[in-house]
Amino acid sequence: MKVRYWIILGALLFIAAAALVVWDTSTPAPVAAQGGDDECDGPCPDWIVEAWAGSGHANAEAEAFRHWDEEDPKEVPTSCAKCHSEGGYLDFLGADDTEAGVVDNAAPVDTVVSCTVCHNPAAIGADSVVFPSGVEVVDVGPSARCMECHQGRSSGAAVAAAVEGAAVGPDEISADLGFINIHYFAAAASLFGSEVGGGYQYEGMAYQTQFEHVPGYDSCANCHSPHTLEVKVAECATCHVDVASAEDLKAIRMPGSLMDYDGDGDTQEGTFSELEGLQEKLYMAIQAYGSEVAGTAIVYNPQSHPYFFIDSDGDGAISAEETDRYASWTPRLLQAAYNFQMYEKDPGAFAHNAKYHVQLMYDSIASLNEALAEPVDIAAAHRNSAGHFDGTAEAFRHWDEDGEVPATCVKCHTSEGLPFLAEHGVVISEEPSTSLACSTCHTNFQDWTLYVTDEVTFPSGAVLSFGEGVPSNLCINCHQGRESTVSVDAALAAVGVGDDEVSDAIRFRNVHYFAAGATLFGTDAKGVYEYEGKEYLGRFAHVPGVADTCTSCHTAHRLSVKVEDCTMCHAGIEETTAIRMTSGDFDGDGADEGVAGEIVTMHEALLAAIQAYAADVAGTPIAYNPAQYPYWFVDANANGVPDADEGDGYATWTPTLLRAAYNYQYVAKDPGAYVHNGKYVAQVLYDSLEAVGGEEAVAGMMRP
User: Model pTM?
Assistant: First the structure.
């Protein structure tokens, strides 16, 4: 079904910063130096002339320039002239002394994207672009020239406005709705993702921001030849081995994109194939919805406007006789069809911003499935990438509105924070990143050398290591938490009240998320709150030299546990939660269960004990919400759960309550605690229960 056009990769079609100059086909004109913005005084070199002449921008016979030949008058209208004529673009720039930012006059049909289009003072000075959504991107440099045309002509906002104007239910047909076409080669809309809203983005969902490739290859001209428009394949091959042609780029699959996005079970195929597989599922859903819900079979023709037609014979394929435009549009169908077309009309989408298109198409299928009796199966498909590369996650999007990630957070929540620390020994604030990147851990992209870290300082002040130069030391730079026994004790000492005295000077101390490294090193790191006079286990060694580091148990990029390796010793297990290599009924429930089960029961008991203590001793009932800061809230109706209207942060803290609540949160925020250092965690839970609930709270339990 897919039609791929002559321009390599379907062209980002980013013209690129240096493109072309006033062009008279008989007389070479001045041209900007290749790769720069400064105009030179000499004629165009022959190689530039030849390069441009063979490109799509110079093809005077192409539909892009001949479409209006039969019109009366024979001219390119103002709505199209900016990108389909020389004069229209100059008009838009204001280079013809008209108002800049609009096209005032229709243009002659007998021009192309000539040298003058990009090589004139107004174009050279351009540094920002306004997209169809109304969003302006700034500081884009020479690529502004490319993005003025390669941005599409519509947006998700236009789709939302059309749906709102129709004022019908999601599955109601409206004569006021018609297909909305983003237009061709909207590469910039793909590249900038959710920042410019080129796709229809479903309410309540987070979407990938601008695709951040590697520095130096993150703009139009960096990746495309400015005159031929072809991809610089030879330069791609520097990092992407086995790439010898533009077609080979479709096979690229990098470690930051290892999920099975289309759900076909193949994670070795290129990202291009993942997108193609997902688009096929979306088309299945669109056709099923058309017949079943909208009541009219639908078929797609990528080569004929308006693209979606009535499938009169119901065979699912377009035929020459099927030329009646599809008119049974519902809001749900329009939204999905728009996203389908956005992907279809950017043949380089897999390189421009694959994850954004994955999310748009996945959500479109999920939406259509809500109305289908037999939903299209996407159970095995994935919308988002693994945690370190999930650009939609709060871990990376939290600071978007601020525009800056503070120095206290930058080490773990930007792509460049950790490398900066490794190089300079300090951290500074940075702009938000899409996610982590290859450059976060690797010093180069040829042999993928890692940054070397010999030892890491933990929040307690302890300096710990897996060993000199061991790669997992990189992991524990971030997976260590942000608090410790030391910081909790210091905070309470500053308040200076008795263990069971309430003080409004006490604040909850949040260890932060996934402090797996602190759990693994146990009392050496003191990430949890350790009670005075108690002894605690140190580093959990597991199988020394085999499975005792982060990367020996987790895949380095997908982050998943290597469960298959676990079965070498733990026979018959399908989930690590079933593993039990130590005796003793820690939670006292008599069940034959894995260590994970022991910890779950003790964790639940601790919450109950905390709530009893809060009500009886602190005098204010408390409720816990793991998904909302500051996690502990006043339980106004004393029903034990945080209700929607209970948003007051808990403030009636005593030292005893704070210590126990800190440990409860610690275990909640390390979901792998049972395997990182199960006995240590059980010790901590036992002691917390005893401290907050007395001997009765641990009756029948066993402290490892």
Answer: 0.89
